[in-house]
Specification:
The chain is an alpha+beta fold and 345 residues long. Helix content is 15%, strand content 33%. It has helices at residues 113-117, 155-161, 203-210, 213-219, 263-272, 290-297, 337-342, and strands at 9-19, 26-31, 34-39, 47-52, 56-59, 74-76, 79-83, 87-89, 92-94, 97-100, 120-121, 133-136, 148-149, 167-170, 175-182, 185-189, 193-195, 224-231, 244-255, 258-261, 312-316, 331-335.
Length: 345
């Protein structure tokens, strides 16, 4: 099975430590493309650190994370966790948290730090409206709907990978769904779970039936479609949509044991036949640095609902290349900091 794990805790290096105006006790450093506020003088430039990304849930029963408990906890599997969010301190954006690598030895050299430290990815606990979880994700030939955050890439990689083929789309604010044709039967998945198809009135099945997805997939020799369900009852309906909609962003055909990207077919055929796709941002130049990628997304208005902030930008490579830097996916994303701060994420 493909490794669909997103690694939240990694061994990294903190650099570019610098002061924050009017702040005597804190400063800001950079880990890869992330800015992180730390106690002044606590870290040295170039020091090895354990960096933990936003969306990580840290078990506060671990004494090393217990100091985070007063900032808020959420219960996961009946245990208290603190969830890291994007914040501003004295006007400075801070994303994630760093620890001295020496405090976590010998585990700091472990490939899977998340498991070693009991760290989990925080996700809304409920499945899509009207759907029941019947089992874990088990599509062995297809990756889940994660995309690498641009902060985990390098300026050198961005500058060298631009071949003129990358296509930007809006990151639609909702919950991801995957539809798979398995021996003629339509199966439905959330990001981590297979959902029951027993109830024809469940939201995912209503969307599939409304757009006749199974028939479209058969006619275009597509084995899987991935998209974002959004609207009423989904993630607080931040796009302020009446009812529920599905914005498709990926199509795949199974080639023996792996997936073949059908991005061009999705956007050419789907839009001509009335299926909604994630809005393309034609004319947007490919970013050559991490900061320019984030600047493009920051403050951008949604093409779905122009009065509200967009969640961000997803960059798709429509060729057949799968990039090791992107966990062998053809996509990466720049989530808008303005969006994260507005919604407390």
């Amino acid at each position: 099975m493909l490794d669909n794990t997103r690694h939240l805790a990694t061994l990294a290096t903190i650099t570019n430590l610098r002061p924050i105006p009017d702040a005597d006790s804190i400063e800001v450093g950079t880990v890869r493309g992330w800015d992180v506020v730390v106690a002044r003088g606590d870290f040295s430039d170039g020091e090895a650190v354990i960096y933990i990304e936003p969306d990580a849930a840290l078990p506060v029963t671990d004494p090393r994370f217990a100091f985070l408990a007063p900032r808020g906890t959420k219960m996961i599997d009946d245990e208290p966790y603190h969830v890291l969010k994007t914040i501003r301190l004295r006007g400075q954006l801070s994303q994630g948290i760093v620890f001295h690598a020496s405090d976590f030895m010998p585990k700091a050299d472990t490939a899977d730090l998340d498991t070693a430290l009991g760290i989990k990815l925080w996700e809304p606990p409920a499945p899509p409206v009207g759907a029941d979880q019947i089992g874990p994700w088990d599509v062995r030939w297809l990756r889940k709907t994660d995309a690498e955050r641009v902060q985990n890439l390098s300026d050198d990689w961005l500058a060298g990978v631009d071949d003129g083929l990358w296509v930007p789309t809006e990151k639609v604010d909702g919950t991801s769904l995957t539809f798979v044709l398995d021996d003629g039967r339509l199966r439905v998945y959330s990001r981590n779970w297979e959902l029951s198809t027993a109830d024809p009135e469940s939201s995912p099945l209503q969307l599939a039936r409304r757009h006749d997805l199974a028939d479209w997939m058969r006619r275009h020799q597509v084995d899987a479609l991935q998209g974002e369900m959004y609207g009423e009852g989904v993630n607080g309906n931040r796009l302020k949509i009446k009812g529920q909609r599905l914005a498709l962003f990926a199509a795949w055909s199974r080639d023996v044991s792996r997936a073949t990207d059908r991005f061009d077919i999705l956007y050419d055929a789907a839009t001509s036949q009335g299926l909604e796709t994630a809005p393309r941002l034609d004319g947007l130049p490919f970013p050559r640095t991490v900061r320019s990628a984030l600047a493009q997304a920051d403050g951008m208005k949604s093409l779905v609902t122009p009065a509200v902030l967009a969640e961000g930008i997803v960059w798709h490579h429509p060729g057949e290349r799968l990039f090791p830097e992107l966990d062998y996916r053809p996509v990466f994303k720049a989530v808008a900091n303005s969006y994260l701060l507005k919604h407390g994420l």
